[in-house]
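Run: sequence + zinc ion -> complex structure.
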Amino acid sequence: MDNYSFDLARIFLGDLSLLFLFEIVFRTVILFAYLIINMRFIGQRSVGQLSSYEIALIVALGSAAGDPLFYVDVPLVHGMVVITLLVLLSRIVTALGARSRRINTLLEGRTIRLVNDGYLDYAGVQQSVLSADEIYMEMRQVGILHLGMVKRAYLETDGMISVFRYPKDRIKPGLSIAPEGDPRGAVIPDDDYFVCERCGYYKPSPAITRETCPNCHHDVWIHPVITHDIELKMQ
Ligand SMILES: [Zn+2]
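>> structure
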C-alpha cells in the first residue's frame, strides 16, 4: 500500500483502457440474451412463489451471469457453461421431484399445519419457525379476528398461509388474535369459557383449573372471544 494514491480515474475506470467499456457492452448483450433463452427452460413461476431451492438456483445463475460481464479474465464461455449446467441440473432435479414425493419434499419443503379446529397446532408452529405474531398478522390480513373462526390453516411451501374458515354458524369462541394496541379488537369476550393463552386450545369445561394445556403444555388460561353478535352489540 506504499504506492497508494486516491486516483479518481482508477476508481471509476480501473487500470484498463476505455475500450474495455465496449467489451463490457458486448459481453452484457451476449450473456443476457443467453441467460434469457436459458431461463425459458426453467419453467414459469412468479417471484412470490419461489421455494428455497429456486432461490438457490437464481443466486447461482446470478453469479454465473454476473462475473463474466466485467471481469476481464473470465471468458464468456465459462459463464455460459455454468448457466447451461445449472439449467440442465434444475430440469433433472425438477423431473426427479415430480416422480418422487420424498425428493420433492426435500427440494420444496413440506406443507405444515398451523391451525387445527380452532387452535394452533403447536408442533406445526414450532416446525414452521414462524412466531405466533407472524401467523396472526397473516390471518388478520384475510379477516380473521380469533382462532375460533379457523378450521384449518397451512403454511404452504411458497411461504403463503392458506386459511380455511368455519362456516358462520359453526364459529366457536377462540383466542383473540387482535394486535397488542387493540387487545379485544372487533370481538367481545366470552367469560364462561377458557382457552390456552399460548395456543388457543379450547377448554370445554367452564371451571378454571391448574392443569397444563394438552396441546402446548402452557398453564395460563384466558377467556376466549366471540364474533357472532357484533352487530347486536353495535346497535
Ligand atoms: Zn396451549
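>> summary
The chain has two domains: 14-107, 112-234. The mean pLDDT is 84.
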